[in-house]
């Protein structure tokens, strides 16, 4: 599904609910819009519905009720293969194919799209450079890379066919603090230069404040509030205030330890 220029939302969740086959309600009455070119952060504790929301955005899951729209079209009516090839997807575990080299992993979607070999090769080299990896890395296998390098390859693969939308599920969560900080800085640089529409899942308020254009706070399968990072820090909502209080305590502890 190709991007369509205009001022309308890129992704819309219209009264969306999702229940497991057991009947357990995971998501209830979600109404949310993702604006073109923004990084919308889904923030919340484990079980709040963040990853479920993300997976509904590219039909890895289908809503029990309501409708998800991408570029104005209901995705239930879209060809699911075409839809997913037009949306980059990055997860914490990276999901690289272990028997593929870095180059083959990054080239996967362009190859499926039938790009000519010379265009694929040029795109792979461009992306490796873009995410801060040397060209020689292309011949390595995932097990030969560090966690940070694998995550960079995952981002490069998601960007390979130049999708307008990126869905990112705690992509830096498993990394050590220094590598995480470095990749966050690189993400900000990439977003500034590429202008993708990003939905980014995290449970870390520090990360949300740093990366998000807006923060959508979720709890127990419901949307609590959607505000800018600055507004979040001033929010009178009890749950948002609890996050800010915990964040302030962590910041004070970090200063005391330094």
In brief:
It contains ten helices and ten strands.
If you average the pLDDT, what whole number results? 90
The largest sheet is: 6 strands, mixed
> Can you count the beta strands?
10
Strand order of the largest sheet: 6-7-8-3-9-10
In terms of DSSP E residues, the strand content is 15-25%
Q: What global shape is seen?
A: globular
Helix/strand order: EEEHEEHEHHHHEHEHEEHH
Gyration radius, rounded? 19 Å
Q: Assign a percent range to the helix content.
A: 25-40%
Straight-line distance between termini: 49 Å
Oligomer: single chain
Number of helices: 10
Low confidence ranges:
1-5
Helix/strand structural class: alpha/beta
Task: Tell me the layout of helices and strands.
Elements lengths: L10 E9 L5 E10 L4 E5 L6 H7 L8 E6 L2 E2 L5 H6 L1 E5 L10 H5 L1 H5 L4 H14 L16 H13 L5 E5 L7 H18 L2 E6 L2 H7 L2 E6 L2 E6 L1 H6 L3 H20 L1
Structure explained in plain terms:
There is one protein chain. This protein has 258 residues and is of the alpha/beta class. Helix content is 39%, strand content 23%. It has ten helices and ten strands. The chain has helices spanning 50-56, 80-85, 102-106, 108-112, 117-130, 147-159, 177-194, 205-211, 229-234, 238-257, and strands at 11-19, 25-34, 39-43, 65-70, 73-74, 87-91, 165-169, 197-202, 214-219, 222-227. The strands form two sheets. The chain has a six-stranded mixed beta sheet, with helices on both faces. Strands 2-1-4-5 form a four-stranded antiparallel beta sheet, covered by helices on one side. Strand 4 and strand 5 (73-74) form a beta hairpin. Helix 5 packs across helix 6 (147-159). The chain is globular and about 55 Å long. The termini are far apart.
């Amino acid at each position: 599904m190709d991007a369509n220029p205009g001022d309308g939302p890129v992704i819309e969740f219209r009264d969306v609910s999702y229940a497991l086959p057991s009947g357990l309600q995971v998501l209830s009455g979600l109404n949310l819009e993702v604006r073109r070119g923004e990084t919308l952060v889904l923030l919340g504790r484990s079980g709040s519905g963040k990853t479920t929301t993300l997976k509904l955005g590219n039909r890895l899951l289908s809503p029990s009720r309501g409708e998800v729209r991408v570029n104005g079209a209901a995705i239930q009516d879209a060809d699911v293969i075409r839809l997913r090839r037009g949306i980059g997807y990055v997860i914490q575990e990276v999901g690289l194919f272990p028997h593929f080299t870095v180059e083959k992993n990054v080239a996967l979607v362009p190859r499926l799209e039938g790009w000519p070999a010379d265009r694929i090769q040029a795109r792979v080299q461009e992306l490796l450079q873009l995410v801060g990896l040397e060209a020689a890395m292309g011949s390595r296998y995932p097990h030969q890379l560090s966690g940070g390098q694998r995550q960079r390859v995952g981002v490069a693969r998601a960007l390979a066919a130049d999708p307008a939308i990126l869905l990112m599920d705690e992509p830096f969560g498993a990394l050590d603090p220094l590598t995480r900080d470095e990749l966050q800085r690189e993400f900000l640089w990439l977003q500034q230069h590429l202008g993708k529409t990003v939905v980014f899942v995290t449970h870390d308020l520090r990360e949300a404040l740093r990366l998000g254009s807006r923060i959508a706070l979720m709890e127990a399968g419901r949307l609590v509030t959607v505000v800018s990072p600055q507004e979040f820090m001033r929010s009178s909502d009890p749950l948002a205030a609890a996050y800010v209080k915990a964040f302030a305590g962590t910041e004070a502890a970090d200063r005391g330890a330094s």
